[in-house]
Design a protein that fits this description.
Blueprint lengths: L1 H31 L2 H8 L4 H11 L1 H37 L4 H34 L1 H18 L1 H17 L14 H13 L5 H12 L5 H4 L1 E2 L6 E2 L4 H11 L3 E5 L6 E6 L24 E4 L4 H9 L5 E5 L5 E6 H9 L13 E4 L2 E5 L4 H8 L11 H9 L8 E5 L12 E10 L2 E11 L1 H5 L8 H5 L1
Parallel strand pairs: 2-3, 5-6
Antiparallel strand pairs: 1-7, 3-4, 6-7, 8-9, 9-12, 10-11, 11-12
Helix pairs in contact: 1-4, 1-5, 1-6, 2-3, 3-6, 4-5, 4-6, 4-7, 5-6, 8-9
Length: 464
């Protein structure tokens, strides 16, 4: 009788461990699944897929049921398995000559360790890892039994879940009945980058998605062409002057002003030339053909800027700062380039915004700080500037001449404050009072130069 009881107890231990495994697998598999995947699979009409869909639609309830099932099976496992395993171990300890009292205590401790280890490995860790690695087939296998258990234990689940929700509400937290399937742009960006890092997405596709998701975080000020690069035409100039300006600059859109950009009366597009007879172009004032232009604040986000630009035929908007002055102009081409990268035509300057120069990089002074970081690896700290040229002006404290240099400290949250990463910036060319081109070279940390064996001399490699 004792032998049969021992065998039955061991069999119950195995069954209870499998029960724990089932509930753990259900918990992790259902949590790992996205609503869209579940609904798409359920369209096949397969019974198991329908079970998964039903369980996923009551996810909070099913998770509570899984937790209750795990608690019941693990408690029962400990109650049944530990005494049985202890009785099996104890004779061997007696044979080693241990006293009765010591043998019983050691046997119980070993039984607890063995039962807990087996239950943890086969009842929790193995099914958890399986559910995370293969959530769909795992969910199809366990959703049916999970639904049956939750239905049978509904009163207990409601009682325990209700108590937990009451406690949360008492501390000011409103419990959610299901996990959210939607993802924030920041979460999607992280998913895209991880997918690209592991080879699930190619680099080009990942970059395009990443830029699209981050587009809404940019402001009109970051998207615009700055005021200093805008070519304007006066209101008393003619359509013939428009043709000459388009030929010389390669631009197609021109603000029409009475003095300067702060007094813009409208905008003209070079295609409007074809609406005027050749004989009348020298006599037709631009003020008579200028069209109203949208005006947006510099703080407007990228999505709203896109909406404003698409709403007008010229696909252009002027950007004004907090004082009402014109800060720049943003076109649909600016928005497209922010997503797909640089778009060049036969009229664009052939000099790229970023290019390798020796052991460093030659960059446009108008590049935003985040664009410089993406292209070169140099990350600037937060400051009262948007462009790399603005950073150099702040560091120098004056309008520089070509050839001036300044040492920059890179933002490195994981590095030592006393030994920061250093870069050298050299002004290559000026455009009036604006830095047109500059060169960035990685210097490294001082500690790297003190110990050449660390490889600190390979600046270009480490910087990139």
């Amino acid at each position: 009788m004792s032998v049969w009881l021992t065998l039955l107890s061991l069999l119950a231990f195995v069954v209870l461990t499998l029960g724990t495994a089932l509930f753990v697998a259900a918990e992790f598999a259902l949590t790992a699944l996205e609503r869209s995947t579940v609904d798409a699979n359920a369209k096949s009409g397969d019974r198991n897929d329908l079970f998964v869909q039903r369980a996923h639609r009551t996810l909070s309830f099913q998770l509570s049921g899984a937790q209750l099932g795990i608690s019941i099976t693990t408690l029962a496992t400990g109650y049944l398995a530990e005494p049985v395993v202890a009785r099996l171990i104890e004779p061997g300890l007696h044979a080693l000559g241990l006293p009765v009292g010591a043998a019983s205590g050691i046997a119980l401790a070993l039984a607890l360790l063995i039962a807990t280890s087996v239950s943890m490995i086969f009842g929790e860790l193995v099914p958890k890892n399986l559910a995370v690695a293969r959530p769909v087939p795992t969910a199809r296998a366990v959703a049916g039994p999970q639904l049956v258990f939750s239905m049978l234990m509904k009163p207990a689940i409601i009682a325990t879940n209700g108590t937990a929700n009451w406690i949360l509400r008492r501390i000011g937290i409103e419990p959610a009945e299901e996990l959210r399937s939607a993802r924030s742009p920041q979460e999607l960006v992280s998913l895209v980058r991880n997918s690209a890092r592991h080879g699930s997405l190619d680099a080009v596709t990942a970059t395009l998605i990443d830029r699209s998701l981050r587009f809404g975080e940019l402001t009109a000020e970051e998207l615009m062409t700055p005021r200093s690069k805008i070519v304007v035409l006066q209101a008393d100039e003619t359509v013939a002057d428009l043709v000459a300006a388009a030929t010389e600059s390669g631009f197609s859109r021109f603000p029409i002003v009475e003095g300067d950009l702060d007094e813009t009366i409208g905008i003209v597009h070079v295609k409007q030339v074809f609406e005027i007879a050749p004989a009348d172009r020298k006599n037709t004032l631009l003020s008579s053909v200028a069209q109203p232009v949208a005006v947006v604040p510099s703080t407007l986000d990228g999505d709203a800027v896109m909406t404003q630009i698409r709403a007008n035929g010229l696909q252009t908007a002027l950007v004004v700062d907090e004082y009402g002055g014109t800060a720049g102009m943003v076109t649909v081409e600016d928005l497209i380039e922010e997503i797909v990268g640089d778009v060049r035509d036969e009229h664009d300057d052939e000099t790229p915004d970023v290019m390798i120069a020796g052991n460093g990089w030659q960059v446009s002074g108008l590049l935003r700080i985040d664009e410089v970081a993406a292209a070169t690896g140099y990350r600037a700290s937060e400051g009262e500037y948007d462009t790399i040229g603005g950073l150099i002006l702040q560091e120098l404290g004056h309008i520089p001449d070509a050839g001036e240099t300044v040492e920059l400290t890179a933002f490195d949250p994981d590095g030592s404050v006393d030994d920061p990463v250093r870069w050298l910036a050299t002004v290559v060319a000026m455009d009036g009072r604006r830095i047109d081109l500059l060169e960035l070279n990685y210097i490294g940390r001082r500690s790297e130069h003190q110990n050449p064996s660390d490889g600190g001399s390979d600046h270009a490699k480490k910087g990139r």
